C-alpha cells in the first residue's frame, strides 16, 4: 500500500492514519509519499545539492514520532525563554503542539492561532485550499516528505484588516528521546488583506540531543498585508535541521524576513518566495555563523512573476573553525515582469584556516526593463581595523569579536524586539569566543 | 524608434558575410567509426602515438553522454551525419607563397575583408589562414623562425616536432575532460601550434583566421600554445562563415601552457553565422579553452568578443597553478535573433598569491538568450588568492533573457574575492542625455553600448579593437535606433 522510502529514510514517516485528517488531506499526503518515493534522493549532481551531502543525515536512521510525549512542566521551558519578550506564545515539543505550555489568551478579535492537529480535528474544511498550496508544484524532496508526514504545527490566521500588535512567538522545542527522532512540523500563516503581524519562529533544544527537524512554513499574504518574520535557528549542535519556507505575496503586501542560523550540525534552509500581485515587496535578511563541524546551507529562490515588485536579499556569514557554509541565491524575473527591482548580496568573513564557503548568487532574467544586481564578497577582517582597536588597548580576541559583531549588526538590527536582538547578539558573541 | 520595431530590425538584418565559395574538397563521407578516426590520422600522416591517442579518445567518447546542463536548446545532433574531414584539394603541393594560392580562395578572403597581401605589409601580422581544416597559407614563417618561435599547423607540428608536441598535447584538456573535448581529441582536423622558447618575446602578433566552408563538415580545431619561461606571445583568433542551411558543429579545443614568468594573451573575435531569423542554420560552437599557468608569476589572459554562432558554449579558463600566477578573462558577448550563448570562465586558484580578474559584458537583444556561468575556486593551499569578478548584462527588447550563474568556492580563509553583477536596460536618462545633445538615437545607443563594453575592448590588440567595435555596431544595427 505504502510506497517504500529510500534507504536511510525508511522510518521517517509514521502510518498516515495517525493524524486526524479529512480525506482531501490524506489524499494530498498519499500523493506526496508516492511522489517522493519515485524521486531519487537528492545528490551532489543536482544543482541544488551540489555542495551539501546527505551522507551524515542518512546514517542516523531517524524515525518518526508516533507516541504522544509525556507532558513537560512549565519550568522546563524557562531555560529557553527570552527574558523580557512579550508575545503570544505557541510551543511545539518535538513537533507536537503543547497547549499547556502555550499562552494564547487575550487574542484580539480577528486573530486565530492554534495547533494544526486540533484545527484539522475541529474545522478541517477551513484549511482546504489554503494548506499545502503555497508550495505549488514544487517537487523539493524534503518538503514533499514533510507533506507526506504532515502531522502538527501552527496555524496563524488573521482576518481582513486585523492588526496584531504583540508578536507571536513560535517555539520548536526538542527534548532528548530514547532514540533519534525526526519531526515534520508544518505551519500555515495566512494574513488576509490588510492584516499585519510579527512572527518570531525559534528552534531550540533542551540538552545536546541528536534529532532532526524537517519543517515547512507556508505564508500567504493577502493584498496590503504586512508580515515581519524572524526565524532563529538555534538547534542543538548535534541536530539536523531542514526548513523550507514557501511565501506567496499578493499585491502591495510586504514581507520582512530575518533568518539567523547559529545551531545544528547540519542545516539546510530553503526560502522560496513568489509575487502574485504587483507593488509587493520582499526583504530577506540573513546571518549565519558556522563553526567547527557545522554546515549551514541556504537556498533562496525569489520569483518575480509579475511586474513592479521589489526584493532585497542580504545574507552575511561568519565562518570559524572548520565551519562550512553554502549560499545559493536565485532571483528569477519572468517574462513581462517589467520594472522588477532585485538586489542580492552575500558577504562572508572567514575567521579561520579551515573554514569553507561556497556561494552562488544567480540572476535569471527574462524581461528587459529591470534593475537587478548581485554582489558577493569573501574576505577577512582588515588588519588595519584590528590594529586600530589594538592600539587603543583592546585585546586581539575582543577586537575581533567587536568587528564581527559590527559586521553582523546590519542584520541583527533588523530584529524588531530588543530582547530578541540582545539574546542573538550575545549568542553570536559567545560563539566567537 | 520604439523597442518593438527596433528588435524586428535586428532580427531581420541579414548576415553580411553570407556566401559560399565553390571549391573542390577532399572530404570523407559522413559518419564516425574507428575507420574514420584512422583515416583522418593517416591522411594527415601522423605518427603512430597520435593514431593510438585518437582511438583511445574515440573509445572513451562512445561511453559519454552529451551534456545537458547548459541553458541552451537545440535539436539533437546526429553525429553520424557529419563528415569529419574536409581538406581543400591539392594538399600535396601546399603553397609557398600567395601566388600559389587558389584564386577562388583569395577572392573569398577579400570578400571577408581579410586582405592577406595587405596584412603582410600593413599590420606585421603573420597569418595562418585556415580554410576548412588544412592550413593553406602561412606567412612570416621566416621572421618567426629567426626568433625561434614555431608557428605552424598542428598537423605539421605533429609531423615535424612530435617530441615537442607529445608531452603538451592533451595535458591541459585531457580527452576525458568532456563530451566535446573528447570528440575533438578523436577527430581533430587541424589547428595551430605555437611554441615560444625561453626568454623570447614573440616579435609579432600571431593570428589565425578560421573559415568554415565545405557543407556538412564539422570543424574540430585543435590549438596548442606553449610559452616557455620568461616568454611572451599574443595570439589572435578571428572568424566568420558563409551563409548556409544545415547546422554546423564546431567543437574546438584550445590549450595554453605558460611556464615561469611567461605570458600568453589570447584574443578572439567570433562572428560565425548565427542562423536566419527563425534560428535555422547557425553554427553550434562548443569549445573547450583552457590555460594552465604552470610556472610562478605566469600570466594567461583571455579576451573574447562573441557576436556570432547560433549556440555558443564556451568557458575559457585558467588554472593558476604557479605561485603569483595571474589569470584574466574579458568578454563581450552579443546574442540577438534566436542566438543562445552559455559562456563564462573558470579561475582555479591553486598557487599562493594568485590573482584573477573577470570582466564579462553580455548584451542580449531580440530573442537572444544569454547565460554567464563562471566558477572561481580558491583551493586549500592558495594562500592570499585574490579575485574580482564583474558581470554586467544589457537587455534590449522584452523577449530576450540574461542569466548570471556564478559559482564561488573558497577553501582558504586568506582569500579575497568580490563578485558584482548587474542587469539593466539602456536607461531612458542616458538616451535622453545623448539625444538632447543632438545625437541620433542610433548613434546614442551605439555610443552607450560601446561604453558598456569599453573595459573589454581596451584589452584587445589595436587592430582587433577597431574590428570588434565595428562588429558590435553592425550586430546591433537597428537595435534601438
From TrEMBL, chain A:
<dbReference type="GO" id="GO:0016226">
    <property type="term" value="P:iron-sulfur cluster assembly"/>
</dbReference>
<dbReference type="InterPro" id="IPR000825">
    <property type="entry name" value="SUF_FeS_clus_asmbl_SufBD_core"/>
</dbReference>
<dbReference type="InterPro" id="IPR037284">
    <property type="entry name" value="SUF_FeS_clus_asmbl_SufBD_sf"/>
</dbReference>
<dbReference type="InterPro" id="IPR011542">
    <property type="entry name" value="SUF_FeS_clus_asmbl_SufD"/>
</dbReference>
<dbReference type="Pfam" id="PF19295">
    <property type="entry name" value="SufBD_N"/>
</dbReference>
<dbReference type="Pfam" id="PF01458">
    <property type="entry name" value="SUFBD_core"/>
</dbReference>
<protein>
    <submittedName>
        <fullName>Fe-S cluster assembly protein SufD</fullName>
    </submittedName>
</protein>
<comment type="similarity">
    <text>Belongs to the iron-sulfur cluster assembly SufBD family.</text>
</comment>
<feature type="domain" description="SUF system FeS cluster assembly SufBD core">
    <location>
        <begin position="181"/>
        <end position="407"/>
    </location>
</feature>
<dbReference type="InterPro" id="IPR055346">
    <property type="entry name" value="Fe-S_cluster_assembly_SufBD"/>
</dbReference>
<feature type="domain" description="SUF system FeS cluster assembly SufBD N-terminal">
    <location>
        <begin position="23"/>
        <end position="169"/>
    </location>
</feature>
<dbReference type="InterPro" id="IPR045595">
    <property type="entry name" value="SufBD_N"/>
</dbReference>
UniProtKB/TrEMBL annotation, chain B:
<dbReference type="Pfam" id="PF19295">
    <property type="entry name" value="SufBD_N"/>
</dbReference>
<feature type="domain" description="SUF system FeS cluster assembly SufBD core">
    <location>
        <begin position="210"/>
        <end position="452"/>
    </location>
</feature>
<feature type="domain" description="SUF system FeS cluster assembly SufBD N-terminal">
    <location>
        <begin position="144"/>
        <end position="202"/>
    </location>
</feature>
<dbReference type="InterPro" id="IPR000825">
    <property type="entry name" value="SUF_FeS_clus_asmbl_SufBD_core"/>
</dbReference>
<dbReference type="GO" id="GO:0016226">
    <property type="term" value="P:iron-sulfur cluster assembly"/>
</dbReference>
<dbReference type="Pfam" id="PF01458">
    <property type="entry name" value="SUFBD_core"/>
</dbReference>
<protein>
    <submittedName>
        <fullName>Fe-S cluster assembly protein SufB</fullName>
    </submittedName>
</protein>
<comment type="similarity">
    <text>Belongs to the iron-sulfur cluster assembly SufBD family.</text>
</comment>
<dbReference type="InterPro" id="IPR045595">
    <property type="entry name" value="SufBD_N"/>
</dbReference>
<dbReference type="InterPro" id="IPR010231">
    <property type="entry name" value="SUF_FeS_clus_asmbl_SufB"/>
</dbReference>
<dbReference type="InterPro" id="IPR037284">
    <property type="entry name" value="SUF_FeS_clus_asmbl_SufBD_sf"/>
</dbReference>
<dbReference type="InterPro" id="IPR055346">
    <property type="entry name" value="Fe-S_cluster_assembly_SufBD"/>
</dbReference>
Amino acid at each position: 500500500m505504502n510506497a517504500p522510502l529510500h534507504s536511510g529514510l525508511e522510518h521517517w514517516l509514521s502510518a498516515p492514519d495517525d493524524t486526524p485528517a479529512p480525506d482531501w488531506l490524506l489524499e494530498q499526503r498519499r500523493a506526496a509519499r508516492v511522489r517522493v518515493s519515485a524521486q531519487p534522493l537528492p545528490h551532489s549532481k543536482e544543482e541544488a545539492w551540489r555542495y551539501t551531502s546527505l551522507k551524515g543525515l542518512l546514517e542516523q536512521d531517524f524515525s518518526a514520532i508516533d507516541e504522544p510525549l509525556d507532558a513537560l512542566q512549565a519550568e522546563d521551558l524557562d531555560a529557553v525563554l527570552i527574558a523580557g519578550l512579550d508575545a503570544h506564545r505557541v510551543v511545539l515539543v518535538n513537533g507536537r503542539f503543547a497547549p499547556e505550555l502555550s499562552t494564547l489568551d487575550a487574542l484580539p478579535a480577528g486573530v486565530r492561532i492554534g495547533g494544526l492537529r486540533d484545527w484539522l480535528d475541529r474545522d478541517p474544511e477551513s484549511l482546504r485550499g489554503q494548506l499545502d498550496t503555497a508550495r505549488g508544484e514544487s517537487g523539493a524532496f524534503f518538503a514533499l516528505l514533510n507533506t507526506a508526514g504532515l502531522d502538527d504545527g501552527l496555524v496563524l490566521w488573521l482576518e481582513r484588516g486585523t492588526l496584531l500588535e504583540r508578536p507571536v512567538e513560535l517555539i520548536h522545542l526538542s527534548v532528548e528521546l530514547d532514540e533519534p527522532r525526526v519531526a515534520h512540523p508544518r505551519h500555515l500563516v495566512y494574513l488576509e488583506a490588510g492584516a499585519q503581524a510579527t512572527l518570531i519562529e525559534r528552534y531550540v533544544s533542551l540538552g545536546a540531543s541528536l534529532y532532526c527537524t524537517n519543517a515547512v512554513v507556508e505564508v500567504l499574504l493577502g493584498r496590503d498585508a504586512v508580515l515581519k518574520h524572524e526565524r532563529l535557528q538555534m538547534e542543538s549542535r548535534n541536530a539536523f535541521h531542514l526548513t523550507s519556507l514557501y511565501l506567496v505575496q499578493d499585491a502591495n503586501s510586504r514581507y520582512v524576513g530575518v533568518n539567523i542560523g547559529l545551531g545544528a550540525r547540519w542545516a539546510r534552509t530553503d526560502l522560496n518566495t513568489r509575487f502574485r500581485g504587483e507593488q509587493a515587496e520582499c526583504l530577506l535578511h540573513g546571518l549565519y555563523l558556522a563553526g567547527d563541524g557545522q554546515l549551514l546551507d541556504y537556498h533562496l529562490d525569489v520569483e518575480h512573476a509579475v511586474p513592479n515588485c521589489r526584493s532585497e536579499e542580504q545574507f552575511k556569514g561568519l565562518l570559524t573553525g572548520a565551519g562550512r557554509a553554502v549560499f545559493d541565491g536565485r532571483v528569477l524575473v519572468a517574462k513581462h515582469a517589467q520594472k522588477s527591482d532585485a538586489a542580492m548580496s552575500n558577504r562572508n568573513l572567514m575567521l579561520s584556516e579551515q573554514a569553507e564557503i561556497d556561494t552562488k548568487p544567480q540572476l535569471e532574467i527574462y524581461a528587459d526593463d529591470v534593475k537587478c544586481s548581485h554582489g558577493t564578497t569573501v574576505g577577512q577582517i582588515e588588519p588595519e581595523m584590528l590594529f586600530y582597536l589594538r592600539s587603543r588597548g583592546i585585546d586581539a580576541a575582543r577586537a575581533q569579536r567587536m568587528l564581527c559583531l559590527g559586521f553582523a549588526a546590519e542584520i541583527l538590527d533588523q530584529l524588531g524586539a530588543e530582547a530578541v536582538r540582545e539574546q542573538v547578539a550575545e549568542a553570536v558573541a559567545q560563539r566567537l569566543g | 524608434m520604439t523597442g518593438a520595431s527596433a528588435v524586428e530590425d535586428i532580427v531581420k538584418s541579414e548576415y553580411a558575410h553570407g556566401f559560399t565559395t565553390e571549391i573542390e574538397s577532399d572530404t570523407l563521407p559522413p559518419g564516425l567509426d574507428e575507420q574514420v578516426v584512422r583515416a583522418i590520422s593517416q591522411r594527415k600522416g601522423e605518427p603512430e602515438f597520435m593514431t593510438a591517442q585518437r582511438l583511445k579518445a574515440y573509445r572513451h567518447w562512445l561511453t559519454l553522454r552529451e551534456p545537458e546542463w547548459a541553458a541552451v536548446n537545440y535539436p539533437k545532433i546526429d553525429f553520424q551525419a557529419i563528415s569529419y574531414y574536409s581538406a581543400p584539394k591539392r594538399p600535396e603541393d601546399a603553397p609557398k607563397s600567395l601566388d600559389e594560392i587558389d584564386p577562388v580562395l583569395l577572392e573569398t578572403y577579400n570578400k571577408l575583408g581579410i586582405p592577406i597581401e595587405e596584412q603582410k605589409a600593413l599590420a606585421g601580422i603573420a597569418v595562418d589562414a585556415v580554410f576548412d581544416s588544412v592550413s593553406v597559407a602561412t606567412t612570416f614563417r621566416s621572421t618567426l623562425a629567426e626568433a625561434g618561435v614555431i608557428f605552424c599547423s598542428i598537423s605539421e607540428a605533429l609531423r615535424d616536432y612530435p617530441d615537442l608536441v607529445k608531452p603538451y598535447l592533451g595535458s591541459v584538456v585531457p580527452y576525458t575532460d568532456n563530451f566535446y573535448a573528447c570528440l575533438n581529441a578523436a577527430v581533430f582536423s587541424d589547428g595551430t601550434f605555437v611554441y615560444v622558447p625561453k626568454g623570447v618575446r614573440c616579435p609579432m602578433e600571431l593570428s589565425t583566421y578560421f573559415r568554415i566552408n565545405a557543407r556538412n563538415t564539422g570543424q574540430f580545431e585543435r590549438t596548442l600554445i606553449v610559452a616557455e619561461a620568461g616568454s611572451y606571445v599574443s595570439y589572435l583568433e578571428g572568424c566568420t562563415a558563409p551563409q548556409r542551411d544545415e547546422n554546423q558543429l564546431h567543437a574546438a579545443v584550445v590549450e595554453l601552457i605558460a611556464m615561469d614568468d611567461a605570458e600568453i594573451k589570447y584574443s578572439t573575435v567570433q562572428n560565425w553565422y548565427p542562423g536566419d531569423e527563425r534560428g535555422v542554420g547557425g553554427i553550434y560552437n562548443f569549445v573547450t579553452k583552457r590555460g594552465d599557468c604552470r610556472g610562478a608569476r605566469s600570466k594567461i589572459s583571455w579576451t573574447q568578443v562573441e557576436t556570432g554562432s547560433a549556440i555558443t558554449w564556451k568557458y575559457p579558463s585558467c588554472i593558476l597553478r604557479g605561485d603569483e600566477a595571474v589569470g584574466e578573462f574579458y568578454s563581450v558577448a552579443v546574442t540577438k535573433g534566436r542566438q543562445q550563448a552559455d559562456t563564462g570562465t573558470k579561475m582555479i586558484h591553486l598557487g599562493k598569491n594568485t590573482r584573477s580578474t573577470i570582466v564579462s559584458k553580455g548584451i542580449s537583444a531580440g530573442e537572444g538568450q544569454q547565460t554567464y556561468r563562471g566558477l572561481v575556486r580558491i583551493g586549500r593551499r592558495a594562500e592570499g588568492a585574490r579575485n574580482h569578478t564583474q558581470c554586467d548584462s544589457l537587455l534590449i527588447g522584452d523577449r530576450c533573457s540574461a542569466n548570471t550563474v556564478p559559482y564561488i568556492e573558497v577553501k582558504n580563509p586568506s582569500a579575497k574575492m568580490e563578485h558584482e553583477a548587474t542587469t539593466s536596460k539602456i536607461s531612458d536618462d542616458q538616451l535622453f542625455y545623448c539625444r538632447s545633445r543632438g545625437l541620433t538615437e542610433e548613434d546614442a545607443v551605439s555610443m552607450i553600448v560601446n561604453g558598456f563594453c569599453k573595459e573589454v575592448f581596451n584589452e584587445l590588440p589595436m587592430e582587433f579593437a577597431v574590428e570588434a567595435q565595428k562588429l558590435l555596431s553592425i550586430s546591433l544595427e537597428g537595435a534601438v535606433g
